[in-house]
Write a structure and sequence with these properties.
The protein is mostly helical. It has one domain: de novo design (two linked rop proteins). Helix content is 81%, strand content 0%. It has 6 helices and no strands. 19% of the residues are buried.
Length: 191
């Protein structure tokens, strides 16, 4: 082999090596993005499961309270409206908005309960309240896990140089499940 041929072969070998390394890196980043996006979708699914559990508990709670406080129709209407919005929510933004509306309606319901000492002692109400509290705890955990997963995904999408791969594949940041400022403070209710 002459010197020119050796240089050309060496250059081609370097180019092939760089191409293989780049291709391996690209595939690795792509697979990581796909895995992380699937984790985000799974975490959101768990949030929706807990919202559904809460959605299913609310009619029982409302009926129990209604037996004691039948004249509190405005609160019951607000809960029914919020429940309807949750049931028909399409996508995360609508779900979060419906969730916030439900939070507000449930807060008003708990304030109404304060005026009815017999209701606070009712076994059905206590059981439903405990189930709702457990569901709220599970929902808080699911929401936290979702937001942690979104954080990992968003970091993957935004960090250089992986952001080039994400952009080329059409990946973009996912929204966090955040609540409005007004809903951050829990109503003061004692049972």
């Amino acid at each position: 082999m002459n010197r020119n041929t050796t240089v050309i072969v060496a250059a081609l070998a370097v180019i092939a090596g760089i191409s293989i390394l780049f291709g391996g890196w690209y595939v690795s980043v792509r697979n990581s993005l796909v895995r992380t996006e699937q984790q985000v979708e799974s975490a959101w699914s768990e949030v929706e499961n807990q919202l559904q559990r809460r959605y299913d508990l609310i009619p029982n709670l409302v009926e129990t309270v209604r037996g004691y406080a039948s004249h509190e129709q405005e609160v019951f209407t607000a809960i029914a409206d919020a429940r309807s919005r949750i049931g028909s929510a399409q996508g995360m933004d609508e779900t979060v908005s419906a969730y916030e509306q439900m939070e507000s309606a449930l807060s008003r319901l708990l304030v109404v309960v304060e005026d009815y000492p017999d209701l606070k002692a009712d076994r059905s109400f206590i059981r439903l309240q405990d189930e709702l509290a457990g569901t709220e705890n599970r929902l808080a955990v699911a929401r936290r896990r979702y937001n942690e997963t979104v954080q990992r995904f968003n970091e993957s999408v935004l960090v250089f140089p992986a952001s080039f791969v994400a952009d080329s594949l059409g990946y973009s940041r996912k929204p966090y499940f955040e609540i409005e400022e007004a809903a951050r403070s829990a109503p003061r209710v004692s049972f």
